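Subject: design request, 254 residues
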C-alpha cells in the first residue's frame, strides 16, 4: 500500500552547483550515460580499478549523468552511486537531462508524458510501479505512487548533483556547452541538453569538453570535444575515457 502520509520532497530549482579544481588528479575516468545498465557499470568499475592499480596518486571517477531511464535498473543504479567509490578513488556524479526529467515528473506528474516516452516507464518498473497503471492514473495518484515507492534518498541525491566539473585543460559535463559563450555565462539548460551547434562547431574555450548525451556507436573525438555515450541501453558498451595527468587519453569499456 502506498504511504500517503510520507513527507513530501520539495521540487528542485534548475540552478546547480558548478565544480572546479585547480589541479587535475593523476587519473580521471569519465563514464558515459548508464541509463539503468547497472551490470555494465559494475563491470566497467572493476576494469577501472584494475587499470589504475599500478598508478599512485589521486584517482577520480566522474559520472557524466543520465543514470536513469531506458535501461532495466534505474533505481538500483542510484543505490549503487550513493555507495562509496572503489577504494582509492573519489567519485563525482554530474547531472544529466534524464535526472531532471525524472525529478520534474515528481514535481509535475500530470505533465510528464515526455519523460514517460523517453524511458520513464522503465524507471517506474525498476521501482515496482506498473507503468501502464501510472500512465492511466491522475496526476495526484501519480505523485502518490512516486512519493511512496521512490526513496527520499534518491530525490535528495538527484537534487544535489552538480552540473559540471572544470579541470585544467578539460571540462566534464553531460551534454556540452554553447559555442562562443564564456564558461561562467553558460546556461544550465544548455549544459544538460545541448547538441547543436556544440557538436559541429569549436566552442572557443581552451579546454577539451568531455561529454555524453548524444549516443553513437563509437566514441567521437574532435580537437575540442570527446563524446562517450555509446548507447549502453541499446546494446552498446558503457564507455569510460581515461585522462592521465599528461593529458593522454585511453578508452575502457564494459
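Subject: RE: design request

Done. Sequence follows.
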Amino acid at each position: 500500500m502506498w504511504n500517503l502520509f510520507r513527507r513530501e520532497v520539495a521540487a528542485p530549482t534548475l540552478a546547480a552547483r558548478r565544480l572546479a579544481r585547480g589541479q587535475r588528479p593523476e587519473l580521471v575516468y569519465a563514464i558515459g550515460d548508464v541509463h539503468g545498465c547497472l551490470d555494465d557499470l559494475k563491470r566497467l568499475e572493476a576494469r577501472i580499478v584494475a587499470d589504475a592499480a599500478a598508478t599512485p596518486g589521486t584517482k577520480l571517477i566522474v559520472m557524466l549523468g543520465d543514470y536513469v531511464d531506458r535501461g532495466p535498473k534505474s533505481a538500483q543504479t542510484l543505490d549503487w552511486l550513493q555507495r562509496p567509490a572503489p577504494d582509492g578513488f573519489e567519485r563525482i556524479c554530474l547531472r544529466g537531462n534524464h535526472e531532471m526529467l525524472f525529478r520534474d515528473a515528481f514535481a509535475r506528474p500530470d505533465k510528464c508524458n515526455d519523460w514517460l516516452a523517453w524511458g520513464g516507464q522503465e524507471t517506474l518498473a525498476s521501482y515496482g510501479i506498473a507503468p501502464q497503471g501510472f500512465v492511466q492514473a491522475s496526476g495526484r495518484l501519480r505523485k502518490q505512487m512516486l512519493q511512496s515507492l521512490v526513496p527520499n534518498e534518491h530525490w535528495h541525491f538527484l537534487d544535489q548533483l552538480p552540473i559540471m566539473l572544470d579541470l585544467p585543460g578539460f571540462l566534464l559535463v553531460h551534454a556540452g556547452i554553447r559555442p562562443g559563450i564564456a564558461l561562467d555565462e553558460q546556461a544550465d539548460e544548455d549544459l544538460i541538453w545541448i547538441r547543436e551547434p556544440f557538436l559541429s562547431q569549436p566552442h572557443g574555450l581552451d579546454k577539451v569538453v568531455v561529454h555524453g548525451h548524444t549516443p553513437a556507436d563509437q566514441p567521437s573525438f574532435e580537437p575540442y570535444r570527446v563524446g562517450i555515450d555509446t548507447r549502453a541501453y541499446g546494446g552498446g558498451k558503457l564507455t569510460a575515457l581515461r585522462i592521465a595527468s599528461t593529458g593522454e587519453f585511453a578508452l575502457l569499456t564494459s
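The CA atoms of residues 78 and 154 lie 7 Å apart.
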